[in-house]
Amino acid sequence: MNDNQLIDFDIGALLGEAFGIFKKMFTVMILLYLVYFLVTSLVAIMLGADTPEPTTLALTLNIIIAYLLTAFLSGVYTASVWSHMNQHESPIKQGMARCLEVFPMLLGAMILVGIFAAIGFLLFIVPGIIVALALSLVAPVVVIENPGITASLKRSYELTDGYKVKIFYILMIMVAVVLVPIAIASLVFGPSSLDALVPLLSGIITVFNAILYVVIYKHLSAE
After folding, report:
1. What is the pLDDT of residue 50?
2. Are 206 and 34 within 8 A, CB to CB?
3. d(CA 170, CA 87)
4. C-alpha span between 175 and 159 (Å, rounded)
5. Is the CB of residue 199 less than 8 Å from the CB of residue 184?
6. What is the residue range of 120's domain?
7. Angle at 79 between CA 144 and CA 171, to 5 degrees
8. Whole-structure pTM value
9. What does the pLDDT look like over 10-28, one tens digit per residue?
10. Which residue, 163, 169, 164, is CA-closest to 5?
11. Nearest 5 degrees, angle CA 163-CA 166-CA 167?
12. How far apart are CA 119 and CA 192, in angstroms?
């Protein structure tokens, strides 16, 4: 049992704190997501990855570029939220600067997380979920502490020790929040309505999850 087992971890309070930050930062962060969405879409079009029969090279390049952009967006979100929580001026600007500083470490850590999670899912679903939960705080650890790639994975594992079930509950709440409007829209307006709704909800959930993981990190890393 780690020392962080004594830390209060109230799910309602954590969600409330995350939602408070979400309301303040939503506009600028959703604009960043729209830029990310447009850039990734343009890259796919330029490479021909969105055609009915894309080449292997086009698909490979598109995946690599999309992954790099996703990692960068994650780093910017994480650093910006942390800067906002510490009442710094221009949190987005500082977030981008911080992300550029640690991006190689962040990218390396995210690749390892993906590999370990994939191995876990190949060993049946439950191990994959456990690994994903254990390493869910890697981005905040890298961006805020930057202890190194493998040390970041170890640090996330230590922080989440004893809290994986509660983190899982939080994520299930988020899944329910997303699925309910999708189900309602599909029933009321038909499946075609999802073409516009899913990208919007994807942006919202991406923003909120980035905030939520930083909030969870703050509480579990408190001494």
Report:
1. 84
2. no
3. 26
4. 23
5. no
6. 3-220
7. 90
8. 0.88
9. 888 899 999 999 999 999 9
10. 163
11. 85
12. 35
If one counts the domains in the chain, the total is 1
- E strand or H helix at 116: helix 91-122
Copy the structure tokens of residue 215. Answer: 């909030």
92: three-class secondary structure by DSSP = helix
pLDDT tens, residue by residue, 197-222: 777 788 888 899 999 999 999 999 87
| Per-residue pLDDT, 161 | 92
Query: 161's torsion region: left (phi>0), alpha (psi -120 to 50) or beta?
Result: beta
Helix, strand, coil % over all residues of the chain, rounded to 5: 85, 0, 15
Site of tokens 């029969």 = 53
Residue 1 has pLDDT above 50, yes or no: no
pLDDT at residue 46, as a whole number: 93
Give the integer Cα–Cα distance in Å for 75 and 107. 9
